[in-house]
Amino acid sequence: MAIEINGEALKAASSLQLKKWCEEIRAEICETVAVCGGHLSSNLGAVELTVALHKTFDFPNDKIVFDVGHQCYTHKLLSGRADRFHTLRREGGLSGFPKRTESEYDCYDTGHAGTALSAALGIAKARDLKGETFSVVALIGDGSFNNGLIYEALNSLKILHTSVLILLNDNGMSISPTVGGVHEVLDEIKTEGSFCRNDIALFEQFGLQYMGVYDGNDVEDMCDALKIAKEKLKSGSVLLHVSTQKGRGHPFCESAPDRTHGVSPKQEDDRVEYASVLGGELTALAEGDRRIVAVTAAMTDSLGLRGFFERFPERAFDVGICEEHASVLCAAMATEGMKPYYAIYSTFLQRAFDELIHDVCGQNLPVTFCIDRSGITGADGETHQGVFDLSYLSLIPNLTVAIPKDEDEFRGMLRMSKDYNAPLAIRYPRAGKKGKGCVLPIEIGKFELIHSSISDIAIIAAGEIPLAAAENLLRRAQKEGFDFTIVNARFLKPLDEALLLSLPQKYVVTIEDNVAIGGLGDAIDRFYLNRGKVIRNFAYRDEFIPHGEAGALAERFGVEKEEIFRYLKECYARG
Amino acid sequence: MAIEINGEALKAASSLQLKKWCEEIRAEICETVAVCGGHLSSNLGAVELTVALHKTFDFPNDKIVFDVGHQCYTHKLLSGRADRFHTLRREGGLSGFPKRTESEYDCYDTGHAGTALSAALGIAKARDLKGETFSVVALIGDGSFNNGLIYEALNSLKILHTSVLILLNDNGMSISPTVGGVHEVLDEIKTEGSFCRNDIALFEQFGLQYMGVYDGNDVEDMCDALKIAKEKLKSGSVLLHVSTQKGRGHPFCESAPDRTHGVSPKQEDDRVEYASVLGGELTALAEGDRRIVAVTAAMTDSLGLRGFFERFPERAFDVGICEEHASVLCAAMATEGMKPYYAIYSTFLQRAFDELIHDVCGQNLPVTFCIDRSGITGADGETHQGVFDLSYLSLIPNLTVAIPKDEDEFRGMLRMSKDYNAPLAIRYPRAGKKGKGCVLPIEIGKFELIHSSISDIAIIAAGEIPLAAAENLLRRAQKEGFDFTIVNARFLKPLDEALLLSLPQKYVVTIEDNVAIGGLGDAIDRFYLNRGKVIRNFAYRDEFIPHGEAGALAERFGVEKEEIFRYLKECYARG
User: Fold this and answer.
1) CB–CB of A146 and B157 under 8 A?
2) Structure pTM?
């Protein structure tokens, strides 16, 4: 984009100039997201309020924390990164989220919901202790306002005796429309106009100075409101409630904000979204089984559950961005004989780690976790890579951990799950190759021998991407005159001990799309301990994996196909 | 106790009889806790309201979920378990928490704070779907009302369209006095009398029918209130706010409820509480370093921080039972140059697993986690055994994981931590042997050779209890004419690769007080992969560990000293 608007230019600008810039920024965001993918609707809704923030405050001396962080594009454009904006979400380019390592204007990294107020309070408290006086702003969407972390932070406002500005960007949407009691309060305030005492009491009781509802898409209004808010900050924390339109200025986004929350740059025809498979299978299973309920934390569409929600509204629960509550709800329904399926992204399930242990597995309850976006997800970066799940799941007693190798196997696992009476986690990537429609019965803890060879080398791999890599390597090897066995480790827990014991090969190679520590490789190492195997594990190194193209990242962070092939050849030569 | 009060007897009883029974129950609890240890004050405060619940509702047809669950003693006495109450918290005896496997009167297992309302809602929703009509009660202390999970559940009341009774047992205390905005609201309601519209709006906005403040220690009052509440349940969820006195009826408990929350049966003179070591060291460090702040989630005393809080009130933060918020607060303060120490129990840190990854380690911030009650803690059972931490910590990039072998080493690690500029976790048990006062400098990632032997056997162990076991085994071995090397694996991450590479021994035995999956043994296995070692790992099996005596449980669940010794002898014989 041609614009490179700096703080000084903004501060001197007229309202007319600001409005013009907002339109330019909006056009730039639409253009870039069309090419690079990314979060569209939420950024379009937040243009004016971000411009007004930059006009009113002095970043980076003042600090802004973006909740989730997906709505920070305008901020990036206004803080010296416009010239690199076309590299958004590309390897080595700008992150789609705030990154301290990228700019001094980004003071706190985010990616998951609900952290911004806690972070702002911590920054403000440190400021007070150091005797400094800058302002701290937390920009929070109404979806995050359902999250428990926000409440914990609100609760501690009176303990911490400091001041922050909460800018509540209320567009009525999480990724799905926002739901729940707090949302209804916000909605009532918006409908009735501001300053209905009973409603805003919710916020004043936490010690906040509430500032009524402003039009967040009117840049002049926003500048005025922020000026007042900045003044009020001198006497304590302020909640500035702003109403915006998600997808503002883009006809399709305005009409379908839930489908344009995240936009992918391209689609391929031979691919299938695992989410749509989940939706179809679960709806079919539920037709014949009234125990089945589906639970999601504000991601009905992205997890493929729209159809289920429409077909069985009484058995479908979107509880908002409340990953922990959703887990306990599932556990409790299971105690009463229901069969809950909880669909969630891999990294977001980290939020319910304790509930997985304490509520679901501690009571050995038949809750099925459908864990989407596992492995390296790519362009969203560190906070969204699902590379820890095999490790944090396998350490939990009573939990079966399944890893489908393709669409058909995923369907098989879901059908199997219906009558499985204990905790089950099925983890899968966003998309894979279309299946052949051949769905075979799956038995808990049984691996599959995909290719059997009399050579002394075996690859044990789990999941679609590692197994596809193994099969590619096999074709290459066969061309070079050697061969190896390929085992599909469908279950990380329990392992197929009989099959592992029967494998005659001396050289065992494991491949997985997870960090090395605590994953499949470790489980295989442990099983073969002192059993005379020569093992090599390919998994991701002990590092956070940034944004980029998934395949390239996998290579760079430890699953390097050339190195695997080199090693296989070496094993073959050693014989 | 002589009483075996059943539901029918209760229902027919006069007020006078109920009061008499309450006193008998109170005496029984005091007597049993004096012998078995356990939660005293909170149970003494909840006697009358529990008796009234059993008089009003028909358990086990109606359901009650206890938040945390530590206050369930009266419930156990009234539900056919009085004759076994003297076995409380003993191996094979009654659990100190609700246990579905123990009685049909216990419908949901708890142990950690904040789950009860989500659980009650799940049970109620399942009831509705099944077309049943029983009542569901969640008994929740005011401490838990700070927790984010409660808020997530409150927020979903309007989504779930069901009815539960929340009995809010407000005694003004968590383990420490309750703090924060919500507590102030509750306090205001109590002080001003009930039905102050502005205050109770907080609850009504979530869709609750609020019933003003009742005296929870007056059994007659409680019966009347519950009768009304039961009626109101027909038209939706009810919040019955009850004021009780923690430690009621026990002079010392009444005056010091924070010190009598959990009571241990005995103390030994040569033992030291790690918490008191933490408190002393941290206060001393903070004298010379203004960056140091201490954070706790409602456990100032049990974590040894009282002295710090008194000496540096402006740098000490108790944010209530908000483990997640506390973590983010630490991360944020660290971004501004502060040096936060977050003290927490091992199992409670599971609640902040995502924040550990996303906020602290993802940004590589110098937050120090002081993780108390690691390993098998014993009498509190499944939900309190700190046996997963080595696994869930070691999988996180950027995190250094330290395991002190004794008091002196713990002091050394704390002193070292002051200038360590990255995330650090120090995990330790509740108590250990007193140190010798010889505090040596600790270097990150350096192990210690405790005993060097020319034999072909080495034990690598981490932490006080495993190392004490190793040293005991060494004395026994020496009597039988053989010897082995002992290595103190002070750091699970990073490993001391130089020392491990230099170890000449063929036979390597690891001992740890953690589950096998993902712990020290796995790390050593991975390091020595294909290096010709014969390794055996002693760690806990992949099971939840119930309540009992810590040493006996360790033996039973995988760290069996006789078996280790037998194996060592076998290695010696194989030579």
Assistant:
1) no
2) 0.96
